[in-house]
Amino acid sequence: MRHAAGSSIPQLGQRRPVTFAVVVTLPAPVSEEKSVHRRAFRLSLPAFLFALVASAPVLASVQAPEDRVNASAAKRVAADSPYKLGAGTQLIVPAGWSIASEEASAVTLESPEGGSRVYVYETKQTSADTAVAATWQHFLPQADRKLRSTTPLQDADGWDNQQNYVYETSPDEKRSVTAQAMHRGDLWVVRLIDVSNDVAGKREADLALLREEALPPNFVRESFAGRTAHPLDAARLDALRAFIRDSQKTLNIPGVSIGVVQNGKVLMAEGFGVRELGKPEKVDADSLYLIASNTKSLTTLMLGKLVDEKVIRWDEPVTQVLPDFRLGDADTTKKVQIKHLLCACTGLPRHDLEWLLSPPGAPATLALSILSRMQPTSKFGETYQYSNPIAAAAGLVGGHAAYPDLEIGAGYDQAMATRVFKPLGMTRTTFDFARATRGNYAHPYALNQEAQQVPVNMAQNEVIHAIRPAGGAWSNVNDLLKYVGMEAAGGVLPDGSRYIQKSVLEARTAPQVKTRRDSWYGMGLETDARTGVRMVFHGGRMRGYRSNIMWLPEYNVGAVILTNADSGDILMDAVPRRLLELLFDGKPEAQGMVTFAAKSIETRVASARRSITLPADPAVVSKLASHYHNDLLGDIRVERSGGNTRFNFGAWQAPIASRSTPDGGSLLVVTSPGWWPELVMGNKDGKRTLTIRDAQHEYVFTEAS
């Protein structure tokens, strides 16, 4: 079989005697913006490789041994349930999932929707390759999946010699297949995932639970609970600076700005590197970056101020404030209260392509227009589903409540200026792209197909302005430290005055929906307590920009990290980890996260490059029409010049590559730095078509005259 050990799978060198293998099949890659919040300590990947790696491996989990069921009788789990395999591998089965079959060393889990499965297998082998091959043989001996890429993973959570495998799938399958092998002592565990796109899109939290709570026998995570935090003295701050310098170099990030505040005092606010490659101007604490989804926490703070002023209530139905608010589902529309707009708990999925490909200058009402067509794909409050348009509506609702006579976007801008930016002294923070990019700002960069840092076309970022309450703010370390310091101090400003009632502030971090075993999403903010210390945070990702804000409420300490490259992704997790290490004498893991991420990026770029033909195969592009149209996403014009073919989306354009699919077909890959969406060629009603998909939607561009 193609997935068996042998010439089709690179040999990984000598392994310890015992192997734990996990094989996973996920839906096909999703080509959408990942300007989402960050999860603490999670290894992430550059957005330009999202189309390649969206099917990341996820660990399967099962019930505790005493709850084992007959292999022929599937058992649905009512609540998240601990489970152990025969050799002691620890798992958690997500609520609603079924144990389809189980043995002493193997278990099969099935999603609530059916048709998507996670397999976990304990085995003793000589390598990751042989462990994965044994897992395929055990669960799916007739399968014939061609290996697409193999990538080593960082040692973590007690596992070592981890390896990730991604397999080829055809676009029409609308699913993805991955495997992950993990090693501990004399045991290999393999996780094999076979999940449809739509299930992966709406079961992100479940899959993360399966992945992140798969632990070796008797392993206990490090906990900082009950420890006293160290003051961040000069030596500890120098250690943090050294970490940033090394990380910037290792990850080849042009510019990094960072700030730290403790007990109301700014201890660090500085920059490392340059604003623009090839030019000498340095980034500093005043340099502006697009902070993307970090805007959400600022938006929900504005709503909190309006609650404090009794202009709105958290439990107020949205339609009472904004009668034009409509979702594609009338029942869900009735249920949505103001607190639900930023809770990721309404059942509405990611729905980004309609704003990512919107025309320049689209109005703020775009978010409301998109929402009117959005249908829930899970029950209200059932599972975590992150969605930008409804988060954008949160800001519009607040702005309209405060300034009902203004255009809805202008109302939001004014509410943010008067309730957040001015009282906190955030003098440089703005939604105005022209203003932000006139002076001291960090230019965005992403890797191209040759692993070179190249500029990102700012037009790809400007589309966020239409839904700016969800991700359109520009800010800097100096301004964001004022915000983070206030949050860490429970609503008190440096001069001792109270900016907002603590109860209102904390309502934003109250659990609305679970995201992990010990983490949850509130209102535009996530809380992670897996280390025994409650960390509140949010991250931001747009093309060429990666950022994170975080604070520890019980310790009155917080930090801001801003970068101007997609390769800054890992710093969104590694900087908070390094800060915890310095505060609580934690195990030194942050540096390894960065070192390993750099190696992983190199491997993945090479794999992505091998999978495509660039310039695109002439035989493939010769079948293209010159113009395609979709009523929601607009137009694609095909431009040919000097043997190269480009897709012109109006505001921006990029060369295309081609890639063969397992079913013998071809698809086209847009090779824009920071985003590699895939489009499938086809025909409908005698006209040529191009189809682009995200996890739970697809849009068809049809040949136009």
TrEMBL record:
Listed transmembrane segments: none
Gene3D superfamilies: DD-peptidase/beta-lactamase superfamily (3.40.710.10)
Segments forming domain Beta-lactamase-related: 240-568
One annotated GO molecular function: hydrolase activity
Origin superkingdom: Bacteria
Cited InterPro entries: AmpC-like, Beta-lactam-related, Beta-lactam/transpept-like
Keywords noted in UniProt: Hydrolase
Protein name, entry field: Class A beta-lactamase-related serine hydrolase
